[in-house]
Amino acid sequence: MKIIAKTKAVLREQKAETMVEVVVAFVVLSIVLVMFSQGLKYATTAEVYAVENGKACDKAVINLQRFITGHPDEIGNNVPSSPLDEGVMVTSGNTENMTLNNQSDMLKLTKYTVVYSEGGDANVYTYWVFDANVG
Questions:
Q1: Which residues lie closer than 8 Å to 67 by C-beta, 6 or more apart?
Q2: Structural domain total, the chain
């Protein structure tokens, strides 16, 4: 019984310190929970954006492939192999010839810009396409 009485006496003397420790622990726990929930919110938003951007990027690549595999018309403009999607504009930029590692093999490097607009938002994608069949 002496041990219980001593413990009771010690707790009576440090009652205020114990309450402060509980309040501080609760505040720290609350801060950690808020940080965790904000992290989940950020990750969810990033995932939604990545999925939407990935779909738009896939559509842009499909339209670029249609544009590249097309044929020139009478004026010299490239006619896509099949119609491009609505709201898609493909432009061909500069073309450069380059060598790899000082070898005689030449690569033709062409820059293409695809502007894909859907629902008022315009996404611009730039692709560098290599053609190894340069003489």
A1: 78, 80, 84, 90, 112
A2: 1
